[in-house]
Amino acid sequence: MTWTIARKEILSNLLSYKFFIVLLLIVLLVATSLFIMHRDYKQRMADYQVIRPKPGDPVALLAPNPLSIFAKGLDDAMTRSFEISTIGIEVRVGQRGGNIIYSFFTAPDFLYIVRVVLSLVALLFGFDQVSREREQGTLKLLLGSSVSRAKVLLGKWIGNYLSLAVPFLLVTLLGVSFLFLDREVHFSSGQLGRLAIILTLSLLYLGFFLSLGMLVSALTRRAATSVIVLLFIWALFVFVIPNLGTLAARQFVSVPSVRALSEKRQQTWTREVLQSERGGNWAEGVKTISRENDQMEQDYRLKFERLVRLSRDINRISPAASFLDAASEIAGTGIGEESRLKGEITRYKDSVIAQILANWNIENKNRQYPVFTYGPRSVAEIFAGGALFDTLWLIFFNILAFAAAYVAFVRYDVR
Amino acid sequence: MFKVLYKKELLENIQNSRFLLALVLCVVVIPLGFYVSQKDYSDRRQVYDEIVRDYSEMHKTVGDVMKEGGAAFRPPAALGFLSGGVESILPSSVETRGYIMGGGANVDFNNARKVDNSFTALFGRLDLAFIVSTVLAVLVMIFTFNAVAGEKERRTLAQVMANPVSRPVAITAKMAAGTTLLGAAFLAGMLAGILLLVVLGLSPFGRPETIAPLAVGVGVSLLFLLAFYNFGLLVSSLTRGSITAMVALLSFWVATAMILPKGSVVAAKILLPAKSQQVVDLEKSQVRYQISNELGAAIVHLTETTPGIKDMSTDEYFKARRAKSPAVEAFEKTQGEIQDAFKAKSHAALDRIDAEFDQRKAREAALARNLARISPVSCLVHVLTELAGTGFMEEAKWRETRTRFRQILDREIANKQHEIGFKDTWLTGFDKLDGNAAAPGIPPEPVPLEQALGAVWIDIVLLAVYAVLFFAGTYVAFLRYDVR
Q: Between vectors from CA A112 to CA B392 and to CA A399, what angle results, nearest 5°?
């Protein structure tokens, strides 16, 4: 019986204008997003080729991540050029577009579309499932037969979920296959696996919003009221809580500003220069500068990681934040990956400085430095680092919303 | 009759909790956005004040600028809460690179801010432009999706129309009541936001130049909400079911807020492509390298062909120089002329590359902006960004500042240094400059409101046109609407 109801929902969706407009919307959005982000990636890749360091240059520079087409995250920050010298690490802008106008509007990457627009679409599929059928009088007829309310609700959920998820998956896979036509964009098998995980997370996220829509529909008597309530919850989950969480965390954990760090670095540098001018050993000075800067950087990172952890924990009240965190980490463009990259760059700086000190008497231009290599965290590491919790949390949200919808539907007065 | 219908619409919207939702959303989201933006501004302002203070203490004279290098700093935008725009990529200062030598000052942008806040980069900004174009635009959809189609479904529209009331009056009353409530909720949110900033001591309104842009920003936001509201009514008057209206409105919002603004940039890039900054930087360094080689070759040629100089050893040359030998003085004069010629050649070549790049970028940006104007969201963002001082005009002003700063440093330091003569390098000829004169600098000047409005008047006019056009469409659609 559940499947019969699901089929009825699918057929009724297929016959509605709503479905065709939503389908068109998904096609348009996914196509536009992939087109724009693909061009952005190629532009950054072209810039990377121009500023790519020669072998032996003490520069840490990553190529843009192909998965940033789907989850831009902090890829711009991670692909800056980190130049190492005795002063320390100097950050150059790195890949940058030729025109300021590219930064004018937010890049609508795949995650943005799923997080903001498709969550709203999922709500549209769920908001009138109970209240509208009651308004039309069809709910009474349906429950007048021998079918249980649990089966009705489950059938409705499956039918509507498939009506949303199947076109979404097909359009996305079609878009991805178009990306394969471009030989300059290369996805490794590991990256394709990561993409599959991101898609799974997207489906979980959309499933939650569909259940939420059905829950509110089962709690209200009119479809118009349920839209109003749902919009409010949507705005809270997608925009308000992620900002509030970060703000609240900053009240508890204070992280020194970049300026304060830079001042401390400057002080260390000046002190060592003065000591060297007074007859001290400059090589020792360089060692001290590097050691003290590392200590400072480590203190900063520890505080920043505490801030990130607390922000994440507060933000997890919203499934939108959990989804964004997990998906961007899986793509390798999240806060955790950026933090790890910074740690690796500090280690690289240490090895470059060790090399400088070991070859102190060789002229600078003749020195050769180790090449910076960076391997992103494995999926297992990312899951262990918090993405597993976020995934389970999303599953929990799904179950909770569906269970609450079931309870509300059982108590629903169908008259 | 208008008054009766207006009152009915007001009461209906209040009773079905839409107004309450709008009010709560505005009173929560707008102050939250203001607080987040202003807290960020306050932190950056503190850093800016410290930097400027340190710089002023260390750069009191021309001599200090020669030794330490010069800079002009851009203060963070006090009205960034209206729209963060492109502030994160705007230069935080223009600074000299290397010592200011006779060849002229090398001045470039510095962006110390970079990507300082990972959370903002990940979750996006919650400024007024975003709140109005995203959160409030969706709220408008909720207000309008069943304004006409919903009344038809509930059969209340037929009852209203059975009374002696004209359709224009009915639809105008709907529009007036809906926009009144929405406007009231928005203004309440703005007031709550401003009060919160004042109470927390984060208010930028102590500066008189911030009041007028804020007032214009509020007016333009209301105009945008009116245009969007009228579009919602139009869609509701064109559809027979409220769900269809909702989905159509959602599509319109997605197209205007996400696809058109970014898509227009991509379209402009395809139609009028400009090189990337990296490529231009590379071209410029090649030109510098080539001209520097040519200059080196010219000096070598001069040395090897000047009678009396070509056979001198280095020691003999410096001895003759100290003895003020006429041959050496004539040689150095010619050498200075050659250097001047190459300096002019280098500046001209680099300026040509910059000018060509700027021109191409400007054409590309103008096309992108014009295409984006199809979307009311782009018009709103353009206006709020220029009012906040975080947009194109600010960027253009800083490009101009870079040129002016270089000219000032050339005039005050580099050219005077050369007047002393090539023999007096910065190391030896320091005290011959007016080293105790006040350090040259450029105080920050915000883009005046008139100038900002001059750049975005077209966007404001377009928003008004959209509002009128959408209402005219609604009027016609409602006249033809089958209320049964």
A: 155
Residue B323 lies in a domain: no
Chain A / chain B CB contacts < 8 angstroms: 203
pLDDT in tens, B349-359: 988 988 888 88
Across the strands, what pairs with A91? A82
Interface contact B274-A99, CB threshold 8 A: yes
User: Could you tell me which residues come within 8 angstroms of residue B210 by beta carbon, excluding any fewer than 6 positions away?
Assistant: B78, B79, B204
CA distance A70 to A67: 5
Residue in chain A lying closest to B116 (CA): A258
DSSP A91: E
pTM as predicted: 0.79
| Contact across the interface for B116 and A258, Cβ inside 8 Å | yes
The residue ranking higher by pLDDT, B112 or B326, is B326
- B277–A74 CB contact, under 8 Å: no
Residue range A383-399: mean pLDDT, rounded: 93
Confidence of residue A57 (pLDDT cuts 50, 70, 90): confident
Taken as a whole, chain A contains a residue count of 415
Tell me which residue of B204, B209, B132 sits closest to B381, measured CA to CA. Answer: B132
Which tens digit of pLDDT belongs to each residue from A167-205?
A: 999 999 999 999 988 888 888 999 999 999 999 999 999
A392 CB within 8 Å of a chain B CB: no
Count of CA atoms in the C-beta half-sphere (13 A) of B454: 6
* DSSP 8-state class, residue A385: I
Residue B58: inside a domain: yes
Q: A355 and chain B: CB distance < 8 Å anywhere?
A: no
Evaluate whether residue B59 is within a structural domain.
yes
Amino acid at residue number A338 = E
- Put simply, the chain B residues between 132 and 151 with a CB less than 8 A from any chain A CB are 134-135, 138-139, 142, 145-146, 150
Alpha helix (H) residue ranges in B373-391 = 376-388
- In degrees, to the nearest 5, what angle opens at C-alpha B105 toward C-alphas B104 and B111? 155
| DSSP codes, A343-376 | HHHHHHHHHHHHHHHHTTTS-GGG---PPP---P
Rounded Cα distance between B278 and B382, Å, is 27
Number of domains composing chain B: 1
B262–A36 C-beta distance less than 8 A: yes
Structural domain includes residue B61:
yes
**Does A95 contact B at CB distance below 8 Å?**
yes
Nearest to B84 by CA among B132, B30, B127, B38: B127
Q: Which residue has the higher pLDDT, A320 or B94?
A: A320
Q: In angstroms, what separates the C-alpha of B400 from chain A's closest C-alpha?
A: 15
Q: List the domain range (segments joined by +) for residue B55.
A: 1-271+375-484
- Nearest Cα residue in chain B from A221: B16
How does B308-333 read in b/e, with b if 16+ C-beta sit within 10 Å? ebeebeeeebeebbeeebeebeebbe
Among A50, A117, A243, select the one facing B282 at the smallest CB separation.
Answer: A50
A43 has a chain B CB within 8 A of its CB? yes
Alpha-carbon separation of residue B394 from A211, B4, B73 (angstroms): 47, 49, 13
